[in-house]
Specification:
By secondary structure, the protein is an alpha/beta fold. It starts with 27 loop residues before the first strand and ends with a helix.
Amino acid sequence: MILAAGRKNAPPMLNPAPDNPDAFPPSIAVSLRGLAPAYGGVRSALHALAGSGLRAAALDAASPETRPRLLSRSDRRDLAAALRRAELAAAGLDLLIRSEAWSDPAESDRAVAAGVEAIRLASDLRALDAAEQLPVLCVSLPAEGAQPAADTLNAEAGRHGVLVAAVGEHLGNEEDQAEASRVARSARLTRLSGSGDTPSAAAERVIELGPSLAQLRIDSAEPEVLAALAGCVPAMSVACRGATGVIDCFAGAGRTRAESMLVRCITAWLAAAL
């Protein structure tokens, strides 16, 4: 157990009752992309998250343990059972492969096939009562050349009740967003917060993205980055209803450091949501 708070005594943000009916504190999930390696595997990480107060986890579609094409029907049922035991739902899947793979003719077919499989896994987990109602597939798209891939993913996602969200450096620049305009956005907190920007400046960027923002990825646990949540979370509550936070800052971290980072991120998120 990483945090003391369990389901019956969930932090306030997890059972919100906002005074403003137009504002609804966004939920928060944790990405297993970096956390699972810190714990030696997906199931160990899920066990550690049980009782943490978190309600959802994003699976890593590039990890051998949760790579969709490697999972049989039995494997999918086992994964769903592991999520339910941890009292977690799959928030979706991360397929954060090299962005150029989506536009490179030599790689795009394979990338799209992996994306389609990830969408179907998300749908299967929801059917097994182990995923959120609108799971998100997060992909990293290049600034140009990926629209055919994005169109294929969107079509498949629409058939299966999954949302595709793109994260990429170009998503912070309005002039470069034309090709990404048909997919939702997944923004990195470090990208929004900038260097020395105030929480209000980051909040303005969230408001600019508006309903197109599906995810805010908390990709650093540094105090100056987490401080930006003070503006971002309230802005998401009003301008990006349905958007979620995803903690994803554990790359290369050992278990002790990963736990510390997770606690800092959740604490900052809850403080911003109150």
